[in-house]
Amino acid sequence: MLATTEILLIQEEAEAIAEMILDSDVAEQYRICLANIQSNKETQRKIHSFNQMKELYEEVQRFGKYHPEYKKVMMEIRQLKRDMDLDDNVAAFKVAENGLQKLLDDVSVIIGRSVSTFIKVPTGNPFFDELSGCSGGCGSGGSCSCSA
Fold this sequence. Notes:
The chain is mostly helical. 74% of the residues lie in helices and 0% in strands. Helix 2 runs antiparallel to helix 5 (88-115) and helix 3 (41-63) packs antiparallel against helix 4. The relative contact order is 0.09.
């Protein structure tokens, strides 16, 4: 019974942390940037054009440089990607998305390290993975030299 109560308390605290993250300025900026992307017709046109070309690009990739449209598709996909990435709404969204991801990574690392320095925290960020002293994970022949 004690373990069940303890688990419920931990889950409640996790939900409180999630609420704090959702209420943060970083999360609010992310939501604003996402709404800007979704509501701007020109930004949506650029994203749609890129996604359509991406489908053709994937088809061309199966055949490589032997596909008759290889050069044309490669040039067009790069141009469309550049146009999309340089769109002010897309650029702002990427900055906001990275900010939110950094906050989530920071929280994950704090929680993991408070339990043990050997806890593997999947941040997707090589900086954090390197700091944990166990790059690649204990079971994967990582460089941490632990006994696991």
